[in-house]
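Listing S7. Sequence submitted for prediction.
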Amino acid sequence: MSLDIKTNVIEPRRQTYAHVAQRLGADKPASRYQEATWDVQATANFHYRPTWAPERELYDVRLTAIQMDDWYRFNDPRQFYYGTYTMARNKMMETEEANFKFVEKRGLLDQMDDNWKEKVAFFLLPLRHYEWGGNMNGCNASDKSYGTAINQVLLYAGMDRLGIAQIISRIGLLLDGNSGDSLTAAKTFWMEDERWQPLRRLVEDSLVIDDWFEQAVAQFFCMDGVVFPLVYDHFDQENARHGGAALSMLNEFMIDWYADEMKWVDRLLKVTAAENAANAELLTSWVQTWGERALEAARPLAFHVLGDRAETVLEDIKAALHTRARKVGLAPWGDSQ
């Protein structure tokens, strides 16, 4: 007996959903990102107002001072929705796992001199608490934000911070032979050492920012715009001078993540600033306020690790923030105008 398998081509009655077609024009095929993002935000038929803020709706554009005619004007340049986001992060983690195996198998961290190991434990491991703050800010901003295009990138960014905190913790366990003593000491540094208190205070202040958009600007543009270049670029270069080049391999995830993160952060600010002059003025004031605070908070750590080079490095980081601000349509501030 033979089987004759035939295929039939079924023409779809329409190329995409009606609400996507309204934005895309006519009945054109939409990307997965467009179908998973555009106009997914619930906008009507809410039964109850939130008990903690009964003057507002459950999802309310008034939770930020930023004004947008269309909250879907922003689109993630990476085109991340849940599927593409998880695949991208899985690929990055596979590389990170290979780096950990390579460094651990060959005992490469043992090549660092003991004094520098102590300094690494001081300036790197307490950042797991900074990352926890980043997670809280990302999740809170996502919860209060409006429009799936924005609240999904905020949630992805917030969850990434837990992964980074775990990577930093694993580095600590490699340094102390899995005793966990270095992580206990790192918490003491974070809670009590005077050189960490400005950054800890900044994180705690950011947790109680009422406007979710300001909170996102403070965390993902200003604080990260100072901490990530300082730690994973300038401190990393100092590592190499003390036999700690292997640590650069373990920091690879954070370096790649920050480069990826700047894409959506800068795009979000550019679209929002271009919406109207009031938005641009508001964003500029937030960037100035939190940018200056982040630079001052990082100053004690920079001088502890870099010594006399710290002032030059902080000026370079400030200039980089100014450049990003100008590119997204904001006014620079301070001496670098």
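Caption to Listing S7: primary sequence and predicted structure tokens for the chain studied. The first helix runs from residue 18 to 24. Residues 31 and 79 are 9 Å apart (CA to CA).
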